[in-house]
Write a structure and sequence with these properties.
Blueprint lengths: L4 E5 L3 E6 L2 E6 L3 E9 L5 E10 L7 E4 L1 E4 L7 H13 L11 E7 L9 E7 L14 H4 L2 E6 H4 L5 H29 L1
Parallel strand pairs: 4-9
Antiparallel strand pairs: 1-2, 2-3, 4-5, 4-7, 5-6, 5-10, 8-9
Amino acid sequence: MKDYKVIHTDKNFDVIEVNGQVGLKAKSMSVAILPFSTDDNGMIDKIGFLREYNPFRQGDYSMTVITGTVESEEEDLYETVVRELKEEGGIEIPKGETGRIVYVGNLYPSKDSDRIYPSFCVDVTHLEVGEPSGDGSKKEELSEFRMIPVNDGMNTDEALPNAIFLRLFNYTYSRIAENVQSQGTSEN
């Protein structure tokens, strides 16, 4: 990054100035997670949203995806996804079923920050949505997770859920197209 001046610092971010513009410089890595389920035809029917306490939004809440910080140098991104899904969504991925987790790429949530979210979609079809275990923070105590119909979820004004869903849609569509193509090839 270019030379910058630190205006303010805390444990998660530095508020910096670069060439007269103010922005955030992240100090930690976080993941973004969009749980989804499919119907009997394999079509995405529900996506998981967190009604998260956020004093920066009108009404003090935002409808967004699960996010979580990698807590140690030993924890990999998949372990963070599994932990955060349980903490914030109350969903436990069975041992050996990490194939449910699909990495859909990195996303910048804001042009005013260098923070990148490695983003994941998790197929939670036929898994129980239980009580979130939480991390003990007031923010998580005030938040609520739920699986909602795709159409309802796409009404959020938060960019991260919409961007991740588009990547999930592209991934799903590509797999369907591959299956159709391979079936056509095997019939010839």
